[in-house]
Amino acid sequence: MSAVAVEYVFKSSAAGEGEVVVRAERAALFPESSSTVHHDETGHVAWQAMPVLCEFLLSLRGRQLLTSARVLELGAGIGIPGLLAGRVCTELIITDSNDAVVERLRRNVELNMGEMNCSGDAIRVENVVWGADLFPSSLAHSVDIVLGSDVIYSASSAKSFLETAEAAMTQPDGIIVLAYIPRWPNVDRALYDSIAVMKLSAEVVPLCSFMSKKTSNGHALPKGTCLLLLRRMQDVDDPAEVCTDPPEITRRQYNDDVREVFDVCIGPGNITGDLCHRLSSGIGLDCEGKQQICLVIDATGPFSLTTGKARLLSDVFRVPPLINCTELKLKECWLSDGWAILTPGLLDCANKLSRLIVDGDEIGVRAAKEINKLLLHCSDLNFLGLLRNPLGNDGATAITGGLSSCSMLHSLVLSHCRIGDAGTAAIARAFPPTLQELDLSNNEISAIGVADIANAMRDSVLSKLTILNLSGNDIGASGGAELGEVLGVGVPKLQQLDLRGCGMTSSGITWLSPAIPACEDLRVLHLGSNGAGDEAMNELAPAISRCKNLKHLSLAMNSITGEGTWVLVEDLVDCLSITHIDMKGNSLGDNGAAAIADILAEVKTLEVVDLSNNEIGEEGAIAFAEEFEKPMMEEPFSWPRGLTLLLENNPEIVGAARSRLEKAVEDKNPQVVIKVKLSSVTAMETGFGR
After folding, report:
1. What confidence tier does 64 reach under pLDDT thresholds 50, 70, 90?
2. CA–CA distance from 78 to each of 107, 180, 464, 476, 690 (Å)?
3. How many CB atoms neighbour CB 305 within 10 A?
4. How far is C-alpha 325 from the geometric centre of its chain's CA atoms?
5. Average pLDDT over residues 493-498
6. What is the DSSP track for 484-507?
7. For residues 373-390, b (16+ Cβ closer than 10 Å) or e, as one string?
8. d(CA 554, CA 360)
9. What percent of the chain has pLDDT over 90?
10. Which of 32, 107, 380, 671 has the lowest CB atom count within 10 Å?
11. Is the preceding peptide bond at 542 cis, omega within 30 degrees of 0?
């Protein structure tokens, strides 16, 4: 694996220091594609949390922890945090579990020996596999500080990292310093649970206390990025209060010149007894009820809204300024049954709520019953979103009483909630007639559940619906047939229809297609990932030609070949509004590419055509080149907004055909902007992973 020498420059916040430079060797090319579960090569580059840990170690508090300490870095990769720690600590052990990474670590230590406080046998580089049972007995309970950055990347790694770190820490007074970036909620939860199971006290060090900018390699750090100090509970007199950055408050434009609107974002650490005082003093929020509050409680990361925090929050919703909350969003709070504690306080501002969004909050049946109580008082609610919650059929049924009472509701989003046919039937009976958006995507709904939705359409309950999303439900061909019977009649104002990943096959799309033109305002149609083949085009193509407002058509990830593409394009030229065509991941081949190329100039409204991953080779590339080489003599020119043609992941587009296509694009009429995106022929260089 080729390597490059780089310098990582940090600004120290400790007194008397300026820039600190660490020299290191890293992989020249990003190795993620060659990394596997059994052979992890991600340690050959630096990752996004590394600068967070480094800047903390360079802060006054970080240096105080490191002074005279014995330090171990786990999963060190190229070892930058450990190399910084070695400038202050008395003993340093840098480890990884990949032999090649360990060898690179040894070279990086040599590059920085001149700046080390410890030397000789006090610096070691070792191969250490995680797990308490696998940890070398020679290192057990031998270090004061364990460092880790971007080392928790799966649910299992959370447990194994903490077990390994705990095995290494001295007793008492050992500390784990962990820089963590949230990427997947299940990993956040695994880390949170592992901290609790291992009886560790977690202190969150506010990033603003040691970082001047919340960026890594020029990119903004994700929400929930944190620096944790973990200690054994028995080593702590009082569990550390979670300290976070101050509440984020931004002022919106005046709403009809009547009231000011403020967006307020807080985390669990902001929820204390003096929250109202801190919101009211010095940051523009008053206690007189003149302002609308849009509150976001974001616990993204290894954090939770505990029952104690829920009780405090319930109290502050009863008084200004939060009694004036008009929009409330809870994200990854894992409140679950704590809704029984929160709901009583929310009832005091329920009649002002216009939007309620609960995302990833582990809402089951008991919590759903509490939310139902709240909904009964939400007379002005127009948006309800319960995303990524394990409602199931019983939980969905539990909210129907409150749902039916929301007479102003425009949008209902219940995606990723494990709702099956029984829950769908209950919700369908509770649909308010005001609904304009319905999102039941990624549940467990079959054709039986679709039939209940169709019945609501027949009864004109959904006559105002403009957006319908049932993607990710295995409704099958029968579900397509059910919708085909009612679309034009039951939802005449429909503008967006998303049926991706519904397993409708060619038969379902065939039955659905005749109803599509009846939705005269339809602008977006997603039919990707349905296992549809060429035969589906026989009915779909003429239907598309009669859609006078359709702009975006997606048939991605199906089984359409060149033959079906020719059938489609013969009618597609009559759709005078189409701007986006997505057919990536089919089997169009050169024949299908030729079909698309044949009608490009005729469909003057086109802006984006995605034919990525379609087995297109040199002949297909030449077909497009020939089209772009033609002179544009007539006005109006085609593609007045420019045309982007995506041909990525078609590895057979090479050589002279590729060059000809690229040249045809460059030489095209300068009045028309054309972009053709092909797969890169060289790997991207990078110093940071995701």
Report:
1. very high
2. 10, 17, 58, 50, 16
3. 24
4. 26
5. 97
6. HHHHHHH-TT--EEE-TT---HHH
7. bbbbbbeebbbbbbbbbb
8. 28
9. 72
10. 671
11. no
